[in-house]
Amino acid sequence: MPNNNSTNFKYSAMQNYRVYIIIFLLFPLSFFAEDGSQLWLRFPNVKNGISADKIISKGKNPTLEIAKKELATYWQGQAVELRTDKSLKYLKDGYTIKSSLEKVIISAGKESGLLYGVYHILRLQQTKSDVNHLNITEKPSYDVRILNHWDNLDGSVERGYAGKSLWKWEDLPNTISPRYEEYARANASIGINSVVLNNVNASPNMLRTDYLQKVKVLADLFRPYGIKVYLSVNFSSPKVLGGLENSDPLNKNVQNWWKDKASEVYKLIPDFGGFLVKANSEGQPGPQDYGRTHADGANMMADVLKPFGGIVMWRAFVYSPSKEDRAKQAYLEFLPLDGKFRDNVIVQIKNGPIDFQPREPFNPLFGALKKTSEMAEFQITQEYLGFSNHLVFLAPLFKETLESDTYADGKGSTVAKITDGSVRNNNITALAGVANIGEDANWTGSIFAQANWYAFGRLAWNHELSSEQIADEWIKMTFTDNQKLVNPVKEMMLSSRETAVDYMMPLGLHHIFAFDHHYGPEPWGNIPGGRPDWMPVYYHKADENGVGFDRTKSGSDAVSQYFHPLNTTFGNIETCPENLLLWFHHVPWNYKMKDGKTLWEELCFKYDSGVKNVREYQKIWDTMEPYVDTERFKHVQSKLKIQSKDAVWWKDACLLYFQTFSKMPIPYDIERPVHELDDLKKIKLDLKHHN
Amino acid sequence: MPNNNSTNFKYSAMQNYRVYIIIFLLFPLSFFAEDGSQLWLRFPNVKNGISADKIISKGKNPTLEIAKKELATYWQGQAVELRTDKSLKYLKDGYTIKSSLEKVIISAGKESGLLYGVYHILRLQQTKSDVNHLNITEKPSYDVRILNHWDNLDGSVERGYAGKSLWKWEDLPNTISPRYEEYARANASIGINSVVLNNVNASPNMLRTDYLQKVKVLADLFRPYGIKVYLSVNFSSPKVLGGLENSDPLNKNVQNWWKDKASEVYKLIPDFGGFLVKANSEGQPGPQDYGRTHADGANMMADVLKPFGGIVMWRAFVYSPSKEDRAKQAYLEFLPLDGKFRDNVIVQIKNGPIDFQPREPFNPLFGALKKTSEMAEFQITQEYLGFSNHLVFLAPLFKETLESDTYADGKGSTVAKITDGSVRNNNITALAGVANIGEDANWTGSIFAQANWYAFGRLAWNHELSSEQIADEWIKMTFTDNQKLVNPVKEMMLSSRETAVDYMMPLGLHHIFAFDHHYGPEPWGNIPGGRPDWMPVYYHKADENGVGFDRTKSGSDAVSQYFHPLNTTFGNIETCPENLLLWFHHVPWNYKMKDGKTLWEELCFKYDSGVKNVREYQKIWDTMEPYVDTERFKHVQSKLKIQSKDAVWWKDACLLYFQTFSKMPIPYDIERPVHELDDLKKIKLDLKHHN
């Protein structure tokens, strides 16, 4: 019946179509690529949420609409009432949640609080926690919970390992990537309320009118998610962009230029957050170019932002190629300026005195500036921790700094309390994290790097959360609540930062990274004629007697920048914590450690332990295969292989190199090196992600 | 006093000169490079030996002179008498040694026996054994103890990993390298009495008159050391070199050409040993090119050599790209020819039926040719065992074949006994080893590869020596008799071949090497359109059901080439030795092994065990540092690093590849792979030593 062919075909095609629909309904998840693009926002079953009549709220507001939409799409429990309540203003972005079997009531002083509350109950639902007997009050630890993007206008990301920048400057303001809103939603879900869009090594062009119009589009998109936009600014902008004779902060023309620019910005973006400034650091221009101080520079900008409610985050990351120990320089520079900053200036201080090393003591500036608002800057992107290849959960690193007791205002004045306003009456409280986000489908270059974005957000919201709590939440949200996965993966995550320290630079070693890219080991690094303070040998000072940087009174005396009793604790080799020993002391190779081993043996065992742990992570992860989708399973498996090889690379490079000084055998119960030192010295990485 | 300067300078230079002489006398060893060039011939203290009046001998003969010179230079014990005794002719190259505190008496039927006896007592002295109460009778296991050099006339060495050829054909006959005699001495010291100078893939030019004149020089140099020269010949020589119409062995002109050539050879070298022939194999010409048999070809050559006492070693290594299992082809080809070979022909049979794999069952031809002399061919050079990079002591491999019971003439008719004349009345007895020698200072590309040259020589002399005895001798001679080194190094050597099998191809797997260079793993190897029998997939036949080559009756039936009871033992999966399981059977992945593990698990554990053992060898060797000179210590250390990395490479490649069929997890208590299968597939080695 050839004449019927056409009809038959249509009928059959229609049947197939139905079959597809049925399959789609049965296995909805199998149709999405498990590429990590959903982050931790993997609400159960992707079924619809509750019906509109079960969402009770008054008024109309874009933020409220988002909160309601999230409930309508994902909330599967009882009715939810969203209440704005002026009496709760004191909670700032915070909220209360009370619930019964019949209803959840979320109350907040403003709509952003309600949205955060909604994400709170969705998180409880997703982690299979009880949602029927809630009585919660949440108030964020910091007012400004801010991501610093080191994204350049050309689309590259400095120290970014997740592809190009998320911001498509060439397409803006006309074409809008759907990822902008996804990004805002992800931030809102963990409490991040501020973002600096561009690199601290800032292009003056960022302030060009055409770019500001692009920024406005992003600000408009982010606003309903409670997120304010900030910009990094180049101190030379008046000269470079405005054509002025200089950028001297005491020059009236310069001041007027900034004033006009601020007006322009706020006309476009009325809730613009403010400026982030890297000045007179690593070649960036700054007030010192004109004989002015950091305070002069910061205040000039603060004055123009003040009328609009904007703030200046002024980075304390300054050092120059002087004879002075690099670790001391920021403190020496800023201490004399204490009390000279406007009240809308906050000094942004890297967690440690050098530069985001696997382990540093806290920066002695914390607490030392008694009349100045201080904020900590963490690096979420893993510049010094294996890029997006190594699994290193950073909550323990962040917490280590936050919980460090500065003793500035007596015992208990931790970095957290110095910066969150609880021991001092800070004008501004803030916590910054250098973002690890790029255009990769999985956002951060690896699945486990997402946990660091998550952890930063959660800690900026509540620095009292434990690393274990954060890991627990993230694992359950990202993978499953099956304890067969949760427990081993949590164990792996919680030990992972110490493991990385062990195979990279244990016992206080620091900055022995390969020049420039900071990925692999290069303890031998010493470019003739190069800046000494950019050379690994400057930092480890290994010789036949021992290894480590003497920062005691007999050395650079960096210990004296710490308050009592830390100055003496750190300064005495017997009381200095062993995990910072080589940071503060030049220690003989045969120095007896607390466990009875010599320093050399201890060093060997630490490196070896790092390698062993990564191998253990491989085992742990491989046993997770039944509980994870194939795509993400293989992705992580593959990254761990790289980390495992890299750990051996680190171990061999450092032990073989330091052995040329210690002249002692690597203890014979340790797995032997498989590399030749000379071969390792020849490795030149050509990393795509290095920019 | 400037006028005195010149004199002062001279005086001072002279003083220095004296100081140098004194230092030289005090530390004589420290002035020699410990580059391994001395092999195992490191006689103690390099002092002078006994005085001439303590060496008693009659007659004058170049071999005797060498024996006396060795004593005068190195023997530090009592007087030594060297006696030729016609009644000892039955010992062939053998000898007797009797000693008291006053005198050692070495007696032999011929001078070569006396030289071997001298090396015997020097070995005893060097290994610190008793030399005062000796009563020894030695008779070699094989008459012809022969090295096969696969050296080409262009100076390259096929499957050689110790640099270029030792033979400088371009310099000969006029320039004579001192290494020719050192080479002869080394061979004599371990009983090797024959060498084939050139590659079995022979150039016809080898028989050119100018080349024969070069060969004559070497033969003259080797003769005093008891060594006869042989040549590999190209079957097409009459046509290619002589310009004849063909090389048909039944062609009178061809026969005459060979007759004339033999006369020419023997005129130059009266004790010339004979020809080694690779015919109709891997593209080499042979009698089958003219419709003749291997016997026709071998006999034609045997007839021309017979008048001069020469022999033909005819290789049984033949196979063609047919549908027949490659492992069966030599047997099928040669069995019908049994009884048809002249009595001065010996069939040279590779130890296994494929090609020098890490482990093969013995070649079923052994014992099967009942009326033909048979000899075994081992490979000393490590074509399939990690080149000169991997530490693999081959005595256990050699012994495994030699001690294999063929059951050809009833129980106990081992390969050793079939070939040494003890169960059959062989016309010729011989053992061949493909040399691992090149122009590298250390001769064999690595120190431990020297042990394989040593082991081959010692086993050809006495196949009843245990691997342990040989290793013990070699270690003491090469390094030290300090038990702190001897015992651990021996342990390492004795297990090293099994370790290599484990990390390369355990359980009977074979020939899954990378195409052509045979160094790394390539189990996926399958070049479209290539010869199937050169492809790894041909040999392992992995599929979803299992892995292994079914050579039972239901498969290729290679098992039937073995005598009873081996045909049934090998043919039955339950009785087949597990270390040959996949050689003879296609085994399901979940087959239960004797230890209760599945085949897949067992395979994983074997690979892992190989890796672990190499790491253990690294530890063992590193602890030897106090007992070995730095140069050789570092050399071996460096090789072991390569082996350690290679073992992981092998393990990962094979497990990840086979896992694509087994679809089972690698047991979780095993160290995880650190490579991606796809990356491993891309590795293309460009090995300098591959030629």
TrEMBL record, chains A, B:
> What GO cellular component entries does it have?
extracellular region
Does this UniProt record's set of keywords contain Hydrolase? yes
Query: Which catalysed reactions does the entry list for this protein?
Result: Hydrolysis of (1->2)-alpha-D-(4-O-methyl)glucuronosyl links in the main chain of hardwood xylans
The keyword Hydrolase belongs to this UniProt entry's keyword annotation: yes
Give residue ranges for domain Glycosyl hydrolase family 67 catalytic.
Answer: 126-443
* InterPro entries membership: A-glucoronidase_C_sf, GH, Glyco_hydro_67_aGlcAse, Glyco_hydro_67_C, Glyco_hydro_67_cat, Hex-like_dom2
Q: Which GO terms describe its biological process?
A: glucuronoxylan catabolic process
Show the active-site residues.
E282, D355, E383
Q: GO: which molecular function terms?
A: alpha-glucuronidase activity; xylan alpha-1,2-glucuronosidase activity
EC number, as in UniProt: 3.2.1.131
Which intervals of the chain form a coiled coil? none
**Name recorded for this polypeptide:** xylan alpha-1,2-glucuronosidase
